[in-house]
Amino acid sequence: MLVPRAGRIGCPSKQVKRYAILLRSLIRDRLGMNLYVNCVIVFTNRDAVLRVDNPTVTALKPDELCQVIKNHFSEVVLGNKELEDLEAVIRLHSQFH
């Protein structure tokens, strides 16, 4: 049984920004692409109540993620080969592969 907890979780935006910088460096070093990496924090606990003060990173629930991705505009257009290369590098360096 899950016990409800109230409290602050600190500043996840700092953590996600740090990892975005690392991911950008990895992509640049491995593939020679200089891409901006957007940050999004997804809270997967369905019962979580999000109260965000002065957000510097988009924070949302999983059901909102697809719409945020679809609505994002980027001037960068990647071809299938570039997308496959990105996927391969991310998978190779991910602890979840």
Shape estimate: globular
Number of helices: 3
Please state how the strands of the largest beta sheet are arranged side by side.
1-2
Query: What is the succession of H and E elements?
Result: HEEHH
* Main beta sheet: 2 strands, parallel
**Oligomeric form:** single chain
Task: Briefly note the structural class of the backbone.
Answer: mainly alpha
Mean pLDDT: 86
Instruction: Please state the CA-atom Rg, rounded to the nearest Å.
Output: 16 Å
Task: Characterise this structure.
This protein has 97 residues and is mainly α. The protein has one domain. The protein is built from 3 helices and 2 strands; from the N terminus they run H-E-E-H-H. Strands 1-2 form a two-stranded parallel ribbon.
Topology summary:
Layout lengths: L11 H20 L8 E3 L15 E3 L1 H10 L8 H13 L5
Parallel strand pairs: 1-2
Helix pairs in contact: 1-3
Gist of the model:
With about 100 residues, the protein is mostly helical.
List keywords for this structure.
6% strand, mainly alpha, 97 residues, single chain
